């Protein structure tokens, strides 16, 4: 499987941009066809409730959020051909001064992002453009695909660590690096319950807990794709976790601030978020 994907990637790298986009769109349409109806209905209902729109509008947004994965996959396969110079013409940044100021504090940075846009390209862009990014990733079920995607992350200049490597995250944050964490998935009973689109949602504590531990700033950042096919990374002002005697409250307050920023970004670009994930699956225990 690993060899097959590498060969496929090399073939994709030989193709012109328009043909890669066409193949990506075709793959995306296929992805939409194979999504189980039950999951589609769940996603559409959540989009309806969250955005206060009609079922037809929600269906369109959810379909858009699924079909984009074909193009995303093509972009990842093409990564070996993207140099830092080429990345500068492919990806622009809005608010990069917030990230630079946070790094200047010399406490490291926790970068909180979401499954919105092509987050793999965002990580690659930041690393290629000289930002010391640590990608905190979920181990893939397929060992071959896990190796493939991590090899490409490393190729782009990212340091890769798994979500289980908390000690390594703490150490690298203390060394002034950027710890990239996804902050928009259901976190089960281990999460902190905050408001997300008007409903309580179990949310990962990781970004706030790590930032509080090392007195580091949290920088929310997301990527979106323009009509041209190029990307824009939106970087928001730092969130600082206030350290009081109530650790749980400190984490909850900061997590709510970050989650509100995630929500605001999704409202601007609803078709780029991963609606197929059951974000409101876990209910608060009583």
Describe the structure.
The protein is an alpha/beta fold and 286 residues long. It is built from 11 helices and 9 strands. It has helices at 2-13, 17-34, 37-51, 55-77, 84-90, 96-104, 119-128, 143-155, 166-174, 206-214, 247-268, and strands at 91-94, 109-113, 133-137, 159-162, 178-182, 192-196, 199-203, 218-225, 231-235. The strands form 2 sheets. The protein has a 7-stranded mixed beta sheet with strand order 1-9-8-2-5-3-4, sandwiched between helices. A hairpin with a 5-residue loop joins β8 and β9 (231-235). α2 packs across α4 (55-77), α3 crosses α4 (55-77) and α10 crosses α11 (247-268). The longest helix is centred in the first third of the chain and has 23 residues, at 55-77. The model has no long low-confidence stretch (mean pLDDT 95).
Summary keywords:
286 residues, alpha/beta
Task: Please render the helix and strand layout as text.
Blueprint: H1 2-13, H2 17-34, H3 37-51, H4 55-77, H5 84-90, E1 91-94, H6 96-104, E2 109-113, H7 119-128, E3 133-137, H8 143-155, E4 159-162, H9 166-174, E5 178-182, E6 192-196, E7 199-203, H10 206-214, E8 218-225, E9 231-235, H11 247-268
Parallel strand pairs: 1-9, 2-5, 2-8, 3-4, 3-5
Antiparallel strand pairs: 6-7, 8-9
In short:
It contains 11 helices and 9 strands.
User: Distance between the terminal alpha carbons, to the nearest Å?
Assistant: 46 Å
The overall strand count is 9
Specify the number of helices: 11
The proportion of strand residues reads: 15-25%
Low-pLDDT residue intervals, each spanning 5 or more residues: none
- Rg, rounded, reads 19 Å
Task: Provide the structure class.
Answer: alpha/beta
Largest sheet: 7 strands, mixed
Order of helices and strands: HHHHHEHEHEHEHEEEHEEH
* Outline: globular
